[in-house]
Amino acid sequence: MLFNSPLVPARLIARYKRFLFDAELGDGTFITGSCPNTGSMLGLTAPGSRIWLSEHEGGKRKYRHVFELIEADGTTVGVNTGMPNRVAAEAIALGQVSDLGDYTTVRREQNYGRNSRIDLLLTDPLRTTTYVEVKNVHFMRQPGLAEFPDTATARGAKHLEELGDMAEAGYRAVMLFVIQRNDCDRFRICGDLDPVYARAYDRALARGVEVYALKCRVSPTEIAPAGLIPIDEPGIAALHTSIKISAEG
């Protein structure tokens, strides 16, 4: 997925939870812009980091610049949480996620569950309807290992429970983790930062939810799907490992 127009390089001054950031453009101009990421962005907010911004003219936008990418750990990382759904749809259309590309219709943001919306709803007259929940991932503590979540997420646990409901009702339910960074070739659930989510994840697997992790190619010109990567031990196993290491340390 190519960016609609060239991104603007800048230096990060500060990112404010939630929605705003300050930066310095190449010509020395200081700006405030919109940060489309309500999460903690753990490890991705260091002042002075090189960042890239999309630029928007007119309309009802309060801020002209939008925070899209940051340079961290020697690679480029996408921070816009609106991108993974688009990347996921592209990956599915390209046949990169199991056999999900064989469905005739893909609809986005459909109501389901308990006051929720599923990111992608796949339908076909000859196949089982499939619910696809997409999660943005950009957290890394160990080289090559992407993790989710980077903070507690009750909403994320709820989504896993609702996917499990769909699986038990006879539908196909898929959790797709989209990793917006170039340097990860493995993925796991971060059970030590959110044990509740880890338990919800393991329960979802037991109820028949399918789980995939999708790597991306990230650069100032594009964020593109780059195929599935292996998923490490389930959430509770990860939590137990973390507890054991902490006790031995």
From TrEMBL:
A GO molecular-function annotation: DNA binding
Domain Sugar fermentation stimulation protein C-terminal: 83-221
Location of the SfsA N-terminal OB domain: 13-79
Pfam families: SfsA, SfsA_N
Gene3D superfamilies in alphabetical order: 2.40.50.580, 3.40.1350.60
Domain of life: Bacteria
Range of residues in the leader sequence: none
Similarity remark: Belongs to the SfsA family.
Name of the protein described by the UniProt record: Sugar fermentation stimulation protein homolog
Species, as recorded: Rhizobium lusitanum
Source organism phylogeny: Bacteria, Pseudomonadati, Pseudomonadota, Alphaproteobacteria, Hyphomicrobiales
Gene: sfsA
